[in-house]
Amino acid sequence: MTQSKADAFFTSDTKSAVDAVNDLTLPSGSSFSQEQFDALVSLTFNAGSGVLKTNDVVTMLKEPKIYPTYTKKLSSTESDNCSKLVSKAFSYDKNLKTRRNKEATLFCTDMKYTHKYPVYSL
How far apart are CA 15 and CA 26, in angstroms? Predict the structure, then answer.
C-alpha cells in the first residue's frame, strides 16, 4: 500500500469524527488549538459522536477558559477547575483509560492548565 492510499483511508475513516468536532458550537470568540481538536477527534472516532453530547464534554466545552483564545491569566483555582473539567470529559470507557489519559494530556498541551487528574480519578 502506498502512503497516499493509506492517507486516503485515514481521511475517509476519520471524516465523521472530524465533521462532528467541526460542528460543535463553542462559546463566542473561542476556538480550539490543533491539539484540542485532535484529542476530541480521537475521542469521537473511538467512542462515537454521541460522546460530544455527554454532560461532562458539554460542560467542558461551555467553559471559555478551556480554550487558547481565552487571553486572561487563570488563577490557581480556575486552572484547577479546567483540569478537572478535562479529566471528567475524557473519562469515557474505563477499558481505555490509557488512551483517554493520552487524549486528555494532548488536549491540555500548551494550555494555561494541565491534565493533572487522570481520567476516572474524580
Answer: 20
